[in-house]
Specification:
By secondary structure, the protein is α+β, with helices and mostly antiparallel strands. The chain contains 13 helices and eleven strands.
């Protein structure tokens, strides 16, 4: 990207902000009516023409106004936008909503998708955090009737599994609780291989329970696909850029086709937690997304479980709003996932 003079930067920034708000080409006359730029109309026209020569603006058809190019938006995001944060009042409201939800991962995912969509005024997607492997948190053995016992396995990250057992001989609830206390102390925070190495020599009943727990954890590892939560699709498709069926197909494919989304996130999103990434117009790599922009972030606890979240909208996106929303929700979700894995 070429260096721009301070005046050119100001004009480019104003064109982008007005185009985002109006969805129409922006003329020099319009800028002079809205802003006191301290220069003549001829100067503004010349600067806009120069910005077009440099590739930051373009003429749509024969319009007197100009619209930003993908490169213009990229310059704006990287050089002109600066540090953006959500207003403190909005941060408090979002935090309060999350902490009102029960300790339920699916509720947090749905709330995150809704919050992103409403605050960024775009379509949103949130992938559930994926653990590198299942990690034991605790079990419960609950006597039901006779020799029937309910086994409840809780994994770190909130995954809960249940299975009914039929004992060889009935045991009291006190005896079952003693067994679970010993297993919980022995296995807390461990994965399958660690537990298997520690259970050698346990009493027969405890060893049988541990073997069953290992089977349940291994099954969990093999089906860690992770649910995707979405919101705001209809609002996004109501934007002028997506009125035609063809222009909306790429956005729909990203949101609805799991394999395409997985590949896209793997290629675009840094595996480490933290930082917001902005994808503008498909970046010349994804033709399906040539009419779209995405703001993405990874959240979670490195080494335990991470997920992705973001917003999708037209290239004419309010980037400051989208970036600040995605960053704040990702930080909040990371804190919540950390609590699930450490308490």
């Amino acid at each position: 990207m070429s260096d721009l003079s301070p005046r050119q930067q100001t004009i480019l920034s104003l064109v982008i902000r007005e185009h985002v708000a109006q969805a129409n080409p922006i003329s020099s006359r319009m800028l002079l009516q809205q802003y006191d730029l301290g220069v003549s109309s001829a100067t503004v026209r010349n600067e806009m023409a120069r910005l077009e020569e440099l590739g930051y603006l373009t003429h749509p058809h024969t319009s007197a106004g100009r619209v930003p190019t993908d490169m213009g938006y990229r310059f704006f995001v990287e050089r002109l936008l600066g540090e953006v944060t959500l207003p403190a009042a909005e941060q408090r409201l979002i935090t309060h909503q999350f902490h009102q939800a029960r300790l339920d991962l699916s509720q947090w995912m749905r709330l995150a998708a809704t919050t992103l969509s409403q605050k960024a005024r775009s379509a949103s997607l949130v992938t559930a955090p994926q653990a590198e492997q299942s990690l034991f948190k605790h079990i419960e053995l609950i006597s039901t009737q006779g020799r029937l016992v309910l086994l409840i396995l809780v994994l770190q990250g909130g995954n809960v599994q249940q299975q009914m057992l039929t004992l060889a001989e009935p045991l009291t609830q006190a005896e079952l609780s003693q067994t679970t206390d010993r297993i919980n102390q022995l296995c807390s925070g461990m994965g399958v291989s660690e537990i298997r190495a520690r259970v050698q020599g346990l009493p027969t009943f405890e060893a049988e329970i541990c073997d069953l727990v290992l089977e349940m954890m291994e099954r969990s590892d093999t089906r860690m696909t992770g649910e995707i939560y979405r919101d705001g699709l209809s609002e996004m498709l109501s934007q002028p850029e997506f009125m035609g069926a063809e222009s909306s197909q790429g956005a729909l494919r990203l949101l609805e086709e799991r394999s395409f989304l997985d590949n896209f996130l793997a290629e675009t999103l840094n595996p480490s937690v933290g930082g917001v990434q902005v994808i503008i117009g498909g970046e010349g790599r994804w033709e399906e997304l040539s009419k779209c922009s995405m703001v993405l972030a990874r959240y979670g606890v490195p080494g335990f479980a991470t997920g992705a979240l973001g917003v999708l909208g037209p290239i004419r996106m309010s980037y400051g709003r989208a970036i600040s929303t995605v960053r704040f929700v990702a930080e909040l979700m990371s804190d919540l996932v950390y609590e699930m894995y450490t308490y």
